[in-house]
Specification:
The two termini are 20 Å apart. The chain is built from three helices and nine strands, in the order βαβαβββαββββ. It has a single domain, classed as Rossmann fold (3-Layer(aba) Sandwich), CATH 3.40.50. A six-stranded mixed β-sheet has the order 4-3-2-5-6-7, with helices on both faces. A three-stranded antiparallel β-sheet has the order 1-9-8, covered by helices on one side. The model has no long low-confidence stretch (mean pLDDT 92). The chain is an alpha/beta fold. The structure holds inosinic acid and magnesium ion (MG). Magnesium ion binds next to loops.
């Protein structure tokens, strides 16, 4: 088996926990008295979704979409394909999209346009990580976790070649010798 090295821990499990608690607190306050539907983007967002949701003190519902953006293991091509759509209608619902990371922003840009057509009552975005220094279409991320350098990271839902999603922290991977 090919071995992959973590160059360094970028964000520790404790730092992530504190940040998600803070984000959950804001979401709880903002959606008080409203029916919130959290939409996680599979697969990467499953861990953020689960942990963030446990800091939200509201009768929240959950749904998931699975998308795939074509590209190599470490770069996206911007072409998005919906592999699994939402189970429920979102017309008139307060929808909060939950993402692990915003890199090129192309996945979310596409998804937002796709979901807006369905006329939700509101549509907001939460993302644990945002890569700095990347040119992307304008995205209004209402609940953001950490800004990180434009490097390839793994853990806390983020994979390299399908693996490493279960690391409890966000780490920078040593990409020496890997495809680009
Ligand atoms: P986008 O480039 O913003 O469209 O990001 C698309 C998807 O690529 C994200 O939802 C992640 O699943 C994945 N991705 C982007 N950057 C990284 C990274 O640094 N590590 C692992 N996956 C990433
Ligand atoms: Mg991915």
């Amino acid at each position: 088996m090919e071995s992959v090295n973590i160059e360094r821990v970028l964000i520790s499990a404790d730092e992530i926990k504190d940040k998600l608690a803070e984000m959950g607190g804001k979401i709880t306050a903002d959606y008080a008295g409203k029916d919130l539907l959290m939409v996680g983007i599979l697969k990467g967002a499953f861990i953020v979704m689960a942990d963030l949701a446990r800091h939200i003190e509201l009768p929240v519902e959950f749904d998931f979409m699975a998308v795939s953006s074509y590209g190599s293991a470490t770069k996206t091509s911007g072409v998005v394909r919906i592999l699994k759509d939402l189970d429920q209608e979102i017309t008139g619902r307060h929808v909060l999209i939950v993402e692990d990371i915003i890199d090129s922003g192309l996945t979310l840009h596409y998804l937002i346009r796709n979901l807006e057509v369905r006329k939700p009552a509101s549509l907001e975005l939460a993302a644990l990580l945002i890569k700095d220094g990347i040119e992307r279409p304008p995205l209004d991320v209402k609940y953001e976790g950490f800004h990180i350098p434009p490097e390839f990271v793994v853990g806390y839902g983020l994979d390299y070649d399908g693996k490493l999603r279960n690391l409890p922290y966000v780490g920078i991977m040593d990409t020496t010798g890997l495809d680009d």
